[in-house]
Structures are given as C-alpha cells and as structure tokens.
Amino acid sequence: MSNTHLFLPSGFIRAPLQNGLGRYVPQLQRITLKFCKNHGGSRGVREFIESDLMNFAKANPGTVVYLKPRRHRSPVMVAEYLNGEREYLSCQEFNRDEVLKWLSYMCTRSGIPVMRFRKYQHTDYPTIQGVWNPFTHQAPEMNLAEYPHETLSKPADVTVTATEQLLEIFKRTQIKDTTDGKSEN
Hints:
Residues 37-110 form the Ribosomal protein/NADH dehydrogenase domain. The chain is of the alpha/beta class. The chain has a domain at 23-113: Glutaredoxin, CATH 3.40.30.10. 30% of the residues lie in helices and 16% in strands. The chain has helices at 43-51, 53-59, 96-108, 150-153, 162-184, and strands spanning 10-11, 28-35, 64-69, 76-81, 86-90, 116-117. The protein has a 4-stranded mixed beta sheet with strand order 3-2-4-5, with helices on one face. The longest helix is centred in the last third of the chain and has 23 residues, at 162-184. It is elongated, with a radius of gyration of 31 Å. The termini are far apart.
C-alpha cells in the first residue's frame, strides 16, 4: 500500500443527489481558458481554440466557454462547477490533444475535490478473510479451461427437483403435526 493517500484530504461521499434519474445535468458550469497570444507555452491552447473549440462548444451546450488572452503568462484552464468548486490546471506546453483530453475530463467530473473517502464505521480488527468478489469460490479448473467446455457446460446432475423437495418438506410437516396432535389426546 502506498502512502500517497496520507496527503489527500479525507471526507465522505457528497455526490449530486439523483443526478441522471430523470435527466443528466452536467456539473461543469463554465470553463475559462487563459492563454498568451505570443508565448510558446500557449501554442497547444491556441491550436485547440483555432481547430476544436467550436466542436467542443457544440458538443457541450450546457457549459459556458470563456477565452481570456493575457500577456506573458502561462496558459491556465479554470473549471467552475455547480457546487461552487473551482479547479485550476496549468496547460504549460500542452498540445491540442492534451487540452481536449483535459477539457473532457473536467466535463465528466462532479466538481468534488479528489479526496480519500472515509467510512461511517471503523474497526480496530479488520477482517482476515480478505475482500470477497464473485470469483472467490469458483472452481480452479475454470481458470485454465477453454470454452465451450464439455464437462463445465453440462447442467448439474439433479435427481430430485426443487418441486419434489418442497413436496417432501410439506409432507414431513403434516406428519409431524398429526403426530403431535395424537400425543396430546
């Protein structure tokens, strides 16, 4: 286990409630691209603005895009979300593909800061069994089998059906009730 989680702020999950139940509401409210018209570090942002900005704006009609040219400053992307959070990202020496990838990343985020999630319960003695998953108790021969496999594809050999088992349980309870009634008389 790494220790990178020690430097992250911790908290509980604060997801936008029921977002996507009726319709999905994008959480990115506005994005501001700050760049220099001359500086070489802003070349990727300028290329993105010239070639891909209109397509991005058409694909994300719920997001306002602002362009802010600044002289002799490194390029910055500022994302503002519906929950009031702001996220700054330096775009120094990015190419236009990286700018597009980071913009799409910002569009899919909820605006909640990256944090280490805490649980509502805590124990001093964690489980020694390990984490369960659906493949925990699978047969080991399934790991090396090539499908379709003759023996693994056959249904289990069942001599008594579930209906017959239920009828048998019902008969036993009736016999038990009748014997209990006779012993009371």
